[in-house]
Amino acid sequence: MMRPLLALLFVFVLGVPGAFAAEDVDYDRLVRWMEGTFSSAEHARRDTAFMDMTLHVKRIWPDRRDGAWFYVELSRVDAEDKPERQMVYQVMRVEEGMIESIVWSVRNPDAVRGAWADSTIFEERSQKDLVRRRGCELYFQTDADRYVGGTHGMACASDIKGVSYMTSTITVMADGIMIWERGYSPTNEQLFGSKKQGYVFLRK
Question: So where does this one cross the membrane (predicted)?
Fold first, then answer.
């Protein structure tokens, strides 16, 4: 007969999302590869349809047990004080073979601008300062030497005028990140984003 304490521990581990193993190599590697500063300068040089942009991804709230949290800031190199995008990713293992990134918007973006360079900014803030973007979750799977993730279907509503919904595909590699965002009309006509490929950001 299984000892009561051991049985309780067994049930607890199986019942907690993300608690699949003491060591999750794929998850830990994704978390490690996501963090850093990345540049699309090389991509912009090769293809003038793309802008020279800088992507900062900084780990925040490292003591939280509900996944790895990242502050994400995207800006043009000629306007780094005016970010194009600010958001928070909550990355966690949801099942074997699948890693989810919940996407959060920031209630007061100006208050956290530059937080990638100043870790104290988010020490003074909590999840209450964020708004979850339901339907915009990204689901990652391992593909050889990279992680490929994306949104599902038409669930990610857009805040861009005239655009009904967004899709996002993100590929994370050891040396960079590829981000391909597209926006569509209610009749599935593409209105936003590149039609040929996403931005390629190389690690700096």
Answer: none
